[in-house]
Each structure stands twice: as C-alpha cells, then as structure tokens.
C-alpha cells in the first residue's frame, strides 16, 4: 500500500531552501506515530534536509547520484518501490510526491492554515478522486492545522 504523508500550507507549500516551513510539535509527533515500524521513502534532498535515517523505520532514499549512506537503502529508480508489499510511506519531497501520486492509496495531509514563501509544493490533486476524512485539528502559536486522510476512491 502506497501512502503519502505531508504537511502543507494553504497553497500546498512544502518547503523553502530544502527546509520545512513550519515546525509543529504535534505534527512531528503524529508523523512519528503514523510512520514508526513501516518503510519510509524519500528523495535525496529530503534525506539531506533531515540529515540522518529516521529511527525505528526502514529508510529508503531515492537517488541516482548517491550510492551509499549508512543505515539507509538507496534505490535509483522509484518504480522499484511499486513492487514492494506492506505499508510504504512516501515522505517527500516535491519530486517524490509527484512521482507516487498516481499510485497512492491514501494521502495523510496536515493542512496548515497559513501561507509562506516556498520553493517546493505538493502536487495539485483532484479531491473528487478521494474520500476526505478529518482525523484531528490543532493549534500551535496561532497556527491552526487539520489532520486529514484522503482515501482514494
Ligand atoms: N512539508 C512536508 O511535509 C515536506 C516533506 C518532505 C520534504 N519537504 C520539503 O521538500 C523539499 C525537497 O523537495 P525536492 O522536490 O526539492 O526534493 P526531493 O523530492 O526530496 O529529492 C529530489 C531528489 O530525489 C532523487 N530523485 C527524484 N526523482 C527521481 C527519479 N525518478 N529517479 C531517481 N532519483 C530521483 C534525485 O536525487 P539525485 O539528485 O541524488 O539523483 C532528486 O534530486 C525541501 O524543502 C523539504 O524540506 C517537505
């Protein structure tokens, strides 16, 4: 099962200069809870932005330029992931979300009620193709956010 997980602003902003735009404690905890014990797949730039493998998860980095990182499996073609079984969480960034969107079963989206200067964006997707489930709401330092799961119909 291919599951995307991302946190986005009102304009689907994802990041700027290879960094996240917001650091919401509850969202970080949610990400950890949802992904722990599963496989996480990310692009090389997102891996570099995080800087280390995420603990208690099998980390797969997609890259053509890098051949080895300790504690990480590197794959040079994202199509190979489509042959995997089990829960596969696609954790970004823009390029990797774009690749996997057509294959996705669910999208876990934290929708943050803010706009921000960004240079990477989550791909536009047609909400009519999904059932929308609200699983929680929160607020942190005046930043409101909603945890949603979009289930592919
Ligand atoms: N808000 C969120 O939830 C969230 C989550 C994750 C990331 N982000 C943000 O997203 C931004 C990074 O996104 P990005 O799009 O610039 O980078 P990215 O998707 O993380 O990584 C891009 C890299 O992945 C590899 N790649 C992509 N497609 C490939 C393919 N078809 N075959 C082989 N390798 C492929 C390439 O690595 P090589 O160049 O090494 O070949 C490419 O340079 C950052 O700002 C980050 O903070 C936000």
Largest sheet: 8 strands, mixed
Point out poorly predicted stretches: none
CATH classification class: Alpha Beta
Number of domains: 1
SSE order: EEEHEHEEEHEEEE
Discrete helix count: 3
Tally the beta strands. Answer: 11
Neighbour order of strands in the largest sheet: 6-5-4-7-1-8-11-10
| CATH architecture field | 3-Layer(aba) Sandwich
CATH-wise, what's the superfamily? Answer: Dihydrofolate Reductase, subunit A
Measure the end-to-end span.
14 Å
Keywords:
single chain, 153 residues, alpha/beta, Dihydrofolate Reductase, subunit A, eight-stranded mixed sheet, three-stranded antiparallel sheet, 3 helices, 11 strands, 39% strand, binds NADP nicotinamide-adenine-dinucleotide phosphate
Structure, briefly:
The chain is of the alpha/beta class and 153 residues long.
Describe the protein in words.
The chain has 153 residues and is α/β, with parallel strands linked by helices. The chain has a single domain (2-152), classed as Dihydrofolate Reductase, subunit A. It is 16% helix and 39% strand. It is built from three helices and eleven strands; from the N terminus they run βββαβαβββαββββ. The chain has helices at residues 25-35, 44-50, 94-100, and strands at 2-8, 13-16, 19-20, 39-43, 58-62, 73-75, 88-90, 106-112, 120-121, 130-140, 143-152. The strands form two sheets. Strands 6-5-4-7-1-8-11-10 form an eight-stranded mixed beta sheet, sandwiched between helices. The chain starts with a strand and ends with a strand. The structure holds NADP nicotinamide-adenine-dinucleotide phosphate. The site of NADP nicotinamide-adenine-dinucleotide phosphate has 29 residues, from strand 1, strand 2, strand 3, strand 4 and helix 2.
């Amino acid at each position: 099962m291919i599951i995307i997980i991302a946190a986005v602003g009102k304009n689907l902003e994802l990041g700027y200069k290879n960094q996240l735009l917001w650091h919401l404690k509850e969202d970080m905890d949610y990400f950890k809870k949802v992904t722990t014990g599963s496989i996480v797949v990310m692009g090389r730039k997102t891996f570099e932005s995080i800087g280390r493998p995420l603990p208690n998860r099998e980390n797969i980095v997609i890259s053509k330029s890098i051949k080895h990182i300790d504690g990480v499996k590197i794959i040079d073609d994202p199509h190979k992931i489509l042959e995997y079984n089990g829960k596969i969480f696609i954790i970004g960034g823009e390029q990797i979300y774009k690749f996997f969107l057509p294959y996705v079963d669910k999208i876990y989206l934290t929708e943050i009620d803010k706009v921000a200067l960004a240079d990477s964006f989550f791909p536009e997707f047609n909400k009519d193709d999904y059932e929308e489930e609200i699983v929680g709401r929160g607020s942190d330092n005046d930043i409101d956010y909603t945890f949603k799961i979009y289930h592919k119909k």
